[in-house]
């Protein structure tokens, strides 16, 4: 139980710091101090702050994909309300910030790679459940990775999206491309 509590404290401290500071401005020592854990506790669970960032996004990805449960959800032409809700939240929280690439500096490409891997795993699980009886022309690994690239790029571009209307339009495009990709991958 202490393990989960320490991890939660580290994640919570990191989230709180991100409200006031850009990623690149946050030091591991600040996370440790805010979480009130020891340095050894931090490094028991994470090798660097990027690992905390990726784990934090695991929860975000769960909320993003929460409404994609059935085959109809994935093949709908309309984006699920969970995607619209997460888009609104992202626009509200990122207003006036520097681009993610600028915030992350040299860690940016590795951050994107790790986020895509994390999201691909979640998408694969969701699709595997929704389409449990189906067979695929394209492997689920390739399909889920391709969809994760689309979703990550959508999320990254939200930072520069001027309004919710533009975000909604882009969410419809995301859903349309996702639907087309899944239909192409299905062996029916």
Write a compact overview of the structure shown:
With 188 residues, this protein is mostly helical. The protein has helices at 2-20, 28-35, 39-45, 49-65, 71-75, 81-94, 100-104, 108-130, 140-158, 164-185.
For the largest beta-sheet, the strand count, sense and barrel status come to:
none
Number of helical elements? 10
Give the N-to-C terminal Cα separation. Answer: 47 Å
Element-by-element helix/strand order:
HHHHHHHHHH
Q: Which class of secondary structure composition applies to the elements? A: mainly alpha
Overall number of strands:
0
Calculate the mean pLDDT score and round it.
89
Radius of gyration: 18 Å
Looking at this protein, list some descriptive labels:
188 residues; single chain; 74% helix; mainly alpha; globular
Structural description of this entry:
This protein has 188 residues and is mostly helical. Helices cover 74% and strands 0% of the residues. The protein is built from 10 helices and no strands. It has helices at residues 2-20, 28-35, 39-45, 49-65, 71-75, 81-94, 100-104, 108-130, 140-158, 164-185. Helix 1 packs across helix 2, helix 1 (2-20) packs across helix 4 and helix 4 packs antiparallel against helix 6. It starts with a helix and ends with a helix.
């Amino acid at each position: 139980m202490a393990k989960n509590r320490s991890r939660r404290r580290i994640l919570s401290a990191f989230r709180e710091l991100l409200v006031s500071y850009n990623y690149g401005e946050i030091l591991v020592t600040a996370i440790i101090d805010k979480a009130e854990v020891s340095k050894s506790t931090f490094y028991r669970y994470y090798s660097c702050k990027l690992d905390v960032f990726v784990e934090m996004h695991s929860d975000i990805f769960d909320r993003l994909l929460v409404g994609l449960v059935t085959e109809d959800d994935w093949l709908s032409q309309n984006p699920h309300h969970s995607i619209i809700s997460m888009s609104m939240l992202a626009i509200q929280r990122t207003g006036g910030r520097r681009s993610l690439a600028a915030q992350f500096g040299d860690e940016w490409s590795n951050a994107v790679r790790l986020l895509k891997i994390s999201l691909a795993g979640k998408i694969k699980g969701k699709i595997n459940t929704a389409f449990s009886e189906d067979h695929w022309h394209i492997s689920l690994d390739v399909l889920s990775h391709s969809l994760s690239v689309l979703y990550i790029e959508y999320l990254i571009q939200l930072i520069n999206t001027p309004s919710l209307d533009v975000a909604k339009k882009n969410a419809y495009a995301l859903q349309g491309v996702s639907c087309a990709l899944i239909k192409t991958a299905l062996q029916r």
